[in-house]
Amino acid sequence: MKHIIFGGDGFVGRHLASRLVKDGEEVLIADIVKSDLPHYARARFVHCDVTKLDQVMAVEIGPDDMVYNMAAKMLSPLQVRAKRWEFFWPVNYYGAENIMKATAHAGANRLVQFTTDMIYGHTVQSPQTEDHPAKPLGEYGKSKLATEELAKEWRRRGMNISIFRPRLIIGPGRLGILEKLFKLIDANLPVPMIGSGKNPYQFISVFDCAEAARLAWKGGVPNKEYNLGSDNPPSVRKLLGNLIKHAGSKSFLLPTPAFAVKATLATFDYMNMPIMDPEQYLIADEMCIRETGALKRDLGWKAEYNDGDMLIAAYNEYRAKKSGAAYANAAAVPAE
């Protein structure tokens, strides 16, 4: 038996591959790029564009193999409205469809599929369990929800598919939207919040995501959906205030009327000059905490990293890169 990780050179995939290799497992990484990562000394690589069915079908999948789909297009880099469908859907939906087809064709029946918490849309209830209504607010969330519906169809055909819905994933080597925040703090500028900042903000560590995928395999790949998020997330105000203090910055937090800011951001988006993706700013002041009890009960998972430490580690990595220094212990410390 081997572990096949589509998108295994990407953010979550590389950490999953590293963990499996350390455990002595046979790992095959299928991706469009191959980075200079230590685990390639013991893991195999095959070039594969998941949007090409023939390339996915050519990946060596055996009937006893464990398959993971980590290939995805994320909300960063920011896309204008007209290009969002063509940016998200080919990889997020059609790529996942190709992987499911190839897995079934090979006689394999175990798959871990990552989607997103953005499938939920506006908050109806909080904390949000996996049965929360799913009404995504943009093409990213829509592509992921469609992928979940596709997975449910393959489940009916006999496949076991565990689906994970992570919050904003944070970890070494990827800053994403946080870079804009760090630049404001470095420049001692005001840090605007959408609303009062009293609502919590929840991250999830890339290491905790990789461990969830590993535990799904260990736990028999349940045919269920699972939220992925940190425990006890602090308020936006506390999270950002502690970061400003850590940075020694003169920045201060600036509450804003949420409705006015959202209307302004929507106007910029309509003019094809997006500042944030609607799927981010439309829920920015909501009490959207993802509840992870099902994952803890079923697979014995727990969040090892807390939001404040993750954000500070991300800032430290940003500062180290800016100064041209290597970030100490980057492989073990969460950052984004």
User: Which regions contain 5 or more consecutive residues with pLDDT less than 50?
Assistant: 328-336
Secondary-structure element order, as H and E? EHEEHEHEHEEHEEHEHEHHHH
Largest sheet: 7 strands, parallel
Q: Which strand order spans the largest sheet, edge to edge or round the barrel?
A: 3-2-1-4-5-6-10
Averaged pLDDT, please? 93
Folded structure, characterized:
The chain has 336 residues and is an alpha/beta fold. It is 39% helix and 14% strand. It has helices at residues 11-22, 53-57, 84-105, 139-156, 178-186, 206-218, 236-247, 258-270, 278-281, 293-299, 307-322, and strands spanning 3-6, 27-31, 44-47, 66-69, 110-114, 160-166, 168-170, 191-194, 203-205, 225-228, 253-256. It has a seven-stranded parallel beta sheet, sandwiched between helices. A two-stranded parallel ribbon has the order 7-9. The longest helix has 22 residues, at 84-105. It starts with a strand and ends in a 14-residue tail after the last helix.
